[in-house]
Design brief:
heterodimer; A: about 450 residues; Heat Shock Protein 90; Ribosomal Protein S5, domain 2; B: TerB-like; 6 helices
Chain lengths: ~450, ~110
């Protein structure tokens, strides 16, 4: 029988692996926020004060908090069995999120926490110390040491809650010569705010809503389906029963860009962002984990830009959906894919209809003729010869002028800047306004040629 | 008929419909409708409890099939499974499970 020997990984090397698990700042903060929600927090704040030589990022909540034993147990990496069934609403998975998310962004992270009726307790992982000692040396603070923790929130005087403090940040490119910490931090926080507003938007409304803040400012939810906007269309839905609950599919079609509130349009990245973000929105226990894209079931298209399919899954399906540690990727079971395919056609068709309707409205003008040739599969935009103004102008022209005018109109149609129009209509459709065409230059030129 | 037998009947149909881990809304509605029309003792609570037990259990279709001994109930169970699974189109995997159920009872399909 082979001899069994203890062959645990070297802490010094293993921690380097954990630091590179692939989190972004946004997904790392989101993972910590998942824990806050699971801990029943009603008030969750990300706090990153500017002007610090060694910047810190804190995530502070008013959840249940932990006592000393619970804190020490939770500081262990992989403290929960992923196969263990999670409570409904629990956003955790592997019991590694808080640690791996923190290691990916900072070389030191401190957890300060208080459970109702218990004393405030604190513990810290410091990668420098783990590397120095090549051991999993968790620092547990004595009561009288806690007040001295840099960045400690003053909110612990009453009630329960938890604060995670990330120090010695690796997520900021502090070595860069172009920017200082504050500029870098501000850029990161701006992206983080948008990420939280979108990925946790369903926790920010309704009876059980939580307050999310970033540096004392409340984060307003961003609804990717624009359900409250004029012109929004709700499509068919389906509810499939599964282990631990239901998978709910709901289709949505956004209003046309022209009908959107400019602020909402900006929040969703403008027309370009809306087009790129078409597709499936997968929520795990109400938390958005996959925003946009068709997961290989359909192709992105300009006409399908307004189509969205919302899929809600319970955490009990984590194994079937192969959710990863970051909860940022998943694989859909074949049956769900099959069911979903039935629903994809509807919102895409309606999105196309909205664009086509507006297209048809624009065809109905007496100056341009749109020729679609089914045989050659070509579309050309030509000057409409059956225009009263044009006809009366041509009647007044001599033979040479007629030839010149026709040649000019032909060149005008050939030179239509189609690619530019397409690009601008995709990126900034609200800014394209042909009603504001300036005639001044043309009038000035006529005056110069013909005088008064 | 006992509650346990009725639950087993539901679970056999659930095994066929939920072959891939999910039961569609159309399948669930058909199950509920047929069971309500057939059994006076059937109600929503019993339906919910049977489906929750089904999803929480590792038992196979054969385990549920052998709990049903009454011929009429067996015939109805096969009909229930076939009709509900077919409510949104009978998938290949569902059809295999259904075949298995018919073979287990040595019954002829569409008899």
């Amino acid at each position: 029988m082979p001899k069994i020997i203890d062959h645990s990984p070297s802490p010094k090397s293993h921690i380097k692996t954990l630091m590179r698990i692939g989190y972004t700042l946004n997904s790392a903060v989101a993972d910590v926020i998942d824990n806050s929600i699971a801990a029943g927090a009603k008030d969750i704040e990300v706090y990153a004060p500017p002007g610090m030589d060694d910047p810190q990022i804190s995530i502070i909540d008013d959840g249940y908090g932990m006592d000393r034993d619970e804190l020490i147990a939770n500081m262990r990496i992989g403290c929960k069995d992923p196969d263990e069934e999670r409570q409904k609403g629990d956003l955790g998975r592997f019991g590694s999120g808080m640690k791996t998310a923190s290691f990916s962004q900072a070389r030191q992270f401190t957890v300060v926490t208080r459970k109702e009726g218990h004393a405030i307790v604190a513990a810290r992982w410091d990668i420098d110390k783990v590397e120095e000692t090549n051991s999993w040396c968790l620092e547990v603070f004595e009561d009288d040491e806690i007040a001295g923790i840099e960045g400690l929130s003053t909110g612990f005087a009453q009630g329960s809650g938890t604060q995670i403090i990330w120090s010695k940040l690796t997520c900021l490119d502090v070595g860069s010569h172009a920017q200082n910490h504050d500029t870098e931090l501000a850029a990161c926080l701006s992206e983080l705010k948008a990420y939280i507003a979108l990925h946790f938007h369903r926790f920010m409304t309704g009876a059980d809503k939580r307050v999310f803040k970033l540096n004392n400012a409340i984060i307003e939810p961003v609804d990717p389906f624009m359900t409250g906007e004029r012109g929004y269309q709700e499509g068919p839905s389906e509810k499939m029963r599964c282990k631990g609950g239901h998978i709910v599919i709901q289709t949505h079609v956004l209003p046309h860009f022209k009908k959107m509130d400019p602020e909402r349009l900006k929040e969703l990245g403008g027309a370009g962002g809306i087009s790129q973000m078409q597709g499936l929105y997968i929520y795990r226990e109400k938390r958005l984990i996959s925003a946009g894209g068709w997961l290989g079931m359909a192709r992105n298209s300009q006409l399908g830009a307004l189509a969205r399919v919302q899929v809600d899954i319970p955490s009990s399906l984590d194994n079937d959906w192969s959710t990863d540690v970051k909860k940022a990727s998943l694989q859909m079971p074949p049956r769900v894919k099959r069911e979903l395919r039935k629903f994809l056609a509807d919102p895409v068709r309606r999105s196309k209809r909205i664009h086509s309707y507006r297209g048809k409205q624009e065809v109905a003008n007496g100056f341009w003729k749109i020729c679609e040739d089914e045989n050659t599969k070509t579309i050309t935009y030509q000057i409409d010869p059956n225009n009263d103004l044009l006809e009366s102008l041509i009647r007044k022209c001599g033979a040479d002028e007629k030839r010149l005018l026709v040649s000019y109109l032909n060149q005008l149609a050939v030179g239509l800047p189609i690619n530019h129009i397409y690009e601008k209509m995709s990126e900034r459709p609200r800014d394209v306004n042909q009603k504001e065409v300036e005639m001044l230059q043309l009038e000035a030129m006529l005056e110069k040629v013909f005088g008064n | 008929m006992s509650i346990e037998e009725l639950k087993s009947c539901i679970k056999v149909a659930a095994c066929v419909c939920g072959r891939d881990g999910v039961i569609s809304e159309a399948e669930e509605q058909k199950l509920f409708q047929m069971l309500g029309e057939k059994f006076t003792e059937f109600d929503e609570e019993l339906f919910e409890s049977a489906l929750t037990e089904f999803f929480d259990s590792d038992k196979q279709i054969e385990d549920y099939l052998e709990l049903l001994v009454d011929e009429d109930l067996r015939r109805f169970t096969l009909l229930l499974a076939e009709t509900s699974a077919g409510a949104d189109g009978l998938e290949i995997t569902e059809n295999i499970a259904l075949e298995k159920a018919y073979m287990n009872y040595a019954a002829k399909r569409h008899a």
